[in-house]
Amino acid sequence: MLHKRIIVTGSTYGIGASVTRALVEAGATVASMARSVDLGEQQALELGAAGPGTIRFHRCDVSDRAQVHDAFTRAAADMGGLDALVHVAAVEGGGRPEDETDDDWDRTFSINAHGTFIVNQEAFPHLRVRGGAILNFGAGAGIVGLASNAVYAASKGAVAAWTRSIAAAWGEHGISVNNICPAVWSPMYDEHRARLSPEQLERHDARMAEMIHI
Q1: What is the pLDDT along the chain (214 residues), one digit of tens a residue?
Q2: Closest CA to 71 of 3, 20, 8
Q3: Of 58, 102, 140, 211, which shows the fewest CB atoms inside 10 Å?
Q4: How many CA atoms lie within 13 A of 153 on its CB side?
Q5: Measured CA distances, 108 to 25, 39, 89 (Å)
Q6: Known catalytic residues?
Q7: Residues forming beta bridges with residue 136, ordered by sequence position
Q8: Which helix (H) or strand (E) holds 32?
């Protein structure tokens, strides 16, 4: 990763924060993007001082096309180009299918699915210059479904299908595109578990013990 120029979305929390730290420690030049200015600036200060890579924070709401366009344009100009996008930003919430609301659906899809659509499109003109890589963060729930969080699973299923499509379309430009479904324990997962009843949690853990995420 030495000297690679990489944008990371959702960079200040959970998996995104870990990815950002690992890339800076590997010597990459990182444009960190998230909604929290306080967390982003503090992260940039701490990781920038530790090196060996460099990091600069750009405030960005991935569901807002204008913000993403401005942030990506500034980041690419600041770094002198772009080699890769690591798109982690997402939200998790909701519940069983019969309990989900229109607001649950709209909020989750605006960030998880539409946000992926936006940031991938905005990265494309920068990556097609010399080729590069896009890594979208999906979820096992998007492949196998999730009874306790149906809308989240649906949004991540959309991410998986979109990723396959752009991988087929953009390969001719030397852009590799992948969808990772991490099996991790993160703050977002803690929040999900906290919403489950004891009975739901028992069933959830039994199912998780049998699953292997693709």
Answers
A1: 678 999 999 999 989 999 999 999 999 999 999 999 999 999 999 999 998 999 999 999 999 999 999 999 999 999 999 999 999 999 987 788 999 999 999 999 999 999 999 999 999 999 999 999 999 999 988 998 888 889 999 999 999 999 999 999 999 999 999 999 986 677 777 887 888 888 888 887 887 777 665 4
A2: 8
A3: 102
A4: 15
A5: 32, 22, 11
A6: 152
A7: 87, 179
A8: strand 29-34
Measure the CA angle with vertex 66, ends 63 and 68; round to 5°. 60
For residue 90, how many other CB atoms are within 10 A of its CB?
26
E strands, 63-166, are: 84-87, 132-137
138: tokens are: 């999906």
Nearest residue to 122 (alpha-carbon basis) of 166, 62, 72:
72
Distance of CA 135 to the CA centre of its chain: 8
